[in-house]
Fold 2-keto-3-deoxygalactonate kinase.
Amino acid sequence: MAEFIAVDWGTTNRRAYHMGQGGAVLRTERDDRGLTAIAPGGFAAEARALRARFGDLPMLCAGMVGSVRGWADAGYRACPVSIDDLAGALCWVEPGRTAIVAGASHVGGGRGDVMRGEEVQFLGAVAAGFAPADSLLCQPGTHCKWARMAGGRIASFRTTMTGEIFALLRKHSLLADFLNGEVKRGAAFQEGLAASADGALLGDLFGERASVLLGLRAEEDVAAHTSGLLIGSDVREQGLHAGETVYVLADPGLGDLYCAAIEHMGAQALLIDSHAAFAAGISHIWEQHQ
Amino acid sequence: MAEFIAVDWGTTNRRAYHMGQGGAVLRTERDDRGLTAIAPGGFAAEARALRARFGDLPMLCAGMVGSVRGWADAGYRACPVSIDDLAGALCWVEPGRTAIVAGASHVGGGRGDVMRGEEVQFLGAVAAGFAPADSLLCQPGTHCKWARMAGGRIASFRTTMTGEIFALLRKHSLLADFLNGEVKRGAAFQEGLAASADGALLGDLFGERASVLLGLRAEEDVAAHTSGLLIGSDVREQGLHAGETVYVLADPGLGDLYCAAIEHMGAQALLIDSHAAFAAGISHIWEQHQ
């Protein structure tokens, strides 16, 4: 397999990988040139700038760059989705030079779900042997993705708004003044996880503020407690089986919080390097398409 | 009972009542002179302005005007709270002239809750015979209050952030562009109620957008569907018994949506005039304190 440039191109951030022979990562660069930073029609110039730094190589992009607000709509592949399905459905924005990987979609019980970029990581995690072919994977973030893998394919998935709800509460809500404290694994976070057991999130959120007013909780603990409540609610929504292993693709900080929540619910959590998973996935797609 | 001025004084709005002999409401006035519109130290001047319009009468206020951000901190009475408890705990900000009713607080399962203003409506609804002495009352709004009455007192209550979460989603979230449609009782709202049955709100919210992207739902239906999902989740959190009656204190628009949700869950809903309940409650407090 020859060298190429792989780009995980999201809404606010972007990570470019210089991929070498045999799928080796020669170099990566992360910046804030996500979709929101790029004017309409500006993507070709961005690709030129990347090639100026990484070399005049073919380029394979994944993520929101393939949405209607991105460079071009790369579409969605419906579940079950295999890595070969993605390799067979590239959207060429510069013929023979630059392509975008399709997203994945899932419909179940009348509810639709979509992802762009995470499908490469999930399939890459299995392709690289980081997770078994039949497993449950989780990628926390602004929108947390939970993917059920079966036979190495994404059988189904579900996205939760957990991170965005926390951000909305912190920036704009009645709780905003109380959510400036540090969020870390500790007693307050664990108590928040336990509080999520009642399945009554809308009421529990109001209680975060009232509990401070009534002297039941220290103000500096509210952020961690609320985070525990939200992440605990998120994990509970997935209906984990006791002892089941969840493979978590995340940076250590947020990954650690999700691992704590998963373990609190009686399951096992294993942290996976999401960049290595992306590199493995995009390499397989590049190799297969040729 | 002599004439007085009653003021339901909230964060953004205010409603003043000219109360006549025997608890009759002679006149009411609603304006936007809530707390956020009044500079620190400006409450006495506001009271003078009200007296200039309503007459030089004693004044009894309730609501957020009794918070630390209001005229004075009128404190909280812990549940169970009777109307006599409130009458015995007035906070006089102008001796013999102007008083503020205390709020109510409740602690259960390590979670605290508070209200200011709604306690007068709940106790007034029972005092006026609009609801039985043992009943469940609900006051929807930015923060929805659910009060369990026992022996005519507020035995416990719980506040949900339902209305605020909807407003945050509509103003600031990924869903914002999809939430401009009309929210009314109809097929989309009912489907949202049904969708809340899975108790997986964080995931269902993301599905609101994805379902449009995948052509499963019309964009103009998303606001009503999301409202049904949130209000349905709120009502489910209360664990209603089949056939139980919930007395809803609300304006017809929002009240109608909550009544639909309550009936969807197999309980009965009865709409009560919240202004009449406030007038009854504040009259009883005024009468009892003397």
Notes: Chain B has a mean pLDDT of 96. Chain B touches chain A through 46 residues (CB under 8 Å). The domain at 4-160+273-289 of chain B is CATH 3.30.420.300 (Nucleotidyltransferase; domain 5).
